[in-house]
Design the sequence.
């Protein structure tokens, strides 16, 4: 039998220690619950736990996940105000402040930190400040941003912060986590519509695990995924969080510089300050179908066409986790240069290498 299938049970103490490592990564002293499923589980759980009929929610939409959150919020019976901005840019604190002033009853705000699907990232610190001044709870989807850019959960005043391990952390997709502030617990505990005796219930975890001293696990954990999460947390700690963030920023800078040197394609997110460090999206010109271009590339490369309405005009280069390397960026750019013969491959590679070096410092 494989040694990976014949492991002793994961203890409650080991599970709690992994949660503590997640809390350190998030820079939070709040309760952290590691959930046994992909990050959509705690994202939906957070919304259904904190929102109820009579709630008014501001849903900031900068990509497809914001659209999903709006559906859940409406399903909870909330009045939803969508603040939708073009997917090739980012939301601003001023836009959020205007929306809050226009609808004083807003008590919940949902925001995606980095949208890997569209390649943009939002200024969470500034947005969180106006949300906290208004008095609403803030839920942040940090699945694509954690370990790729700063995430100061407590300092920024994020009440519900959801992460997954499968992107910049370089870990498993089958476990995720959510930090829950004291303000969020107060709201959830008082919410009669919050799930109970359910896989979506944060209150079940609070009652049976967190408040019980984290001594007895409420169910058998996904052991292999938990061990993988533990390993990637240790790897980030060993390499240094700042160095991990710097590597992702350099991959973004090198990709954007190399693409501009290609000439045929252009970054979908036009301003560098709005670009997510985990993925660079590229706009194809009229007559060049992104889906067809992606199909001509080596399938082993971290490149894919966009989804939905953007499939024909958007190409996405993923440079997160182990793919946040100059070699990966250079391989992608070389493949694009080969597919677009008007480009000078040497110039593209040199430009990307200089951008990487300038970003790393």
Sequence:
């Amino acid at each position: 039998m494989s040694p990976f299938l014949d492991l002793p049970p994961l203890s409650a103490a080991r599970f709690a220690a992994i949660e503590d490592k997640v809390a350190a990564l998030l820079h939070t002293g709040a309760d952290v619950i590691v959930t046994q499923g992909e990050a959509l589980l705690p994202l939906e759980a957070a919304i259904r736990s904190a929102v109820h009929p009579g709630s008014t929610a501001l849903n900031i939409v900068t990509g497809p996940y914001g659209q999903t959150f709006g559906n859940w919020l409406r399903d909870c019976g909330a009045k939803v105000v969508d603040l939708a901005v073009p997917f090739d840019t980012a939301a601003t604190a001023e836009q959020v402040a205007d929306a809050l002033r226009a609808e004083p009853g807003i008590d919940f705000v949902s925001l995606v930190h980095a949208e890997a699907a569209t390649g943009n990232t939002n200024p969470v610190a500034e947005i969180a400040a106006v949300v906290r001044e208004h008095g609403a709870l803030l839920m942040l989807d940090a699945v694509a941003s954690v370990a790729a850019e700063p995430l100061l959960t407590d300092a920024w005043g994020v009440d519900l912060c959801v992460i997954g391990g499968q992107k910049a952390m370089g870990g498993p997709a089958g476990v995720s986590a959510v930090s829950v502030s004291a303000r969020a617990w107060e709201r959830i505990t008082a919410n009669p519509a919050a799930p109970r005796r359910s896989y979506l219930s944060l209150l079940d975890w609070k009652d049976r695990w967190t408040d019980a001293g984290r001594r007895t696990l409420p169910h058998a954990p996904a052991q292999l995924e938990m061990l993988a999460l533990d390993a990637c947390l240790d790897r980030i700690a060993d390499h240094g969080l700042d160095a991990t963030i710097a590597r992702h920023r350099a991959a973004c800078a090198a990709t954007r510089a190399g693409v501009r040197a290609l000439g045929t394609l252009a970054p979908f997110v036009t301003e560098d300050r709005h670009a997510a460090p985990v993925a660079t999206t590229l706009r194809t010109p009229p007559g060049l179908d992104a889906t067809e271009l992606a199909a001509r590339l080596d399938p082993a490369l971290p490149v894919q066409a966009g989804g939905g309405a953007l499939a024909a005009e958007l190409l996405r280069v993923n440079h997160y986790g182990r793919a946040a390397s100059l070699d990966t960026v250079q391989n992608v750019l070389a493949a694009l240069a080969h597919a677009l013969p008007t480009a000078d491959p040497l110039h593209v590679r040199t430009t990307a290498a200089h951008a990487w070096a300038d970003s790393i410092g």
Q: What stands out?
A: The domain at 3-238 is CATH 3.40.640.10 (Aspartate Aminotransferase; domain 2).
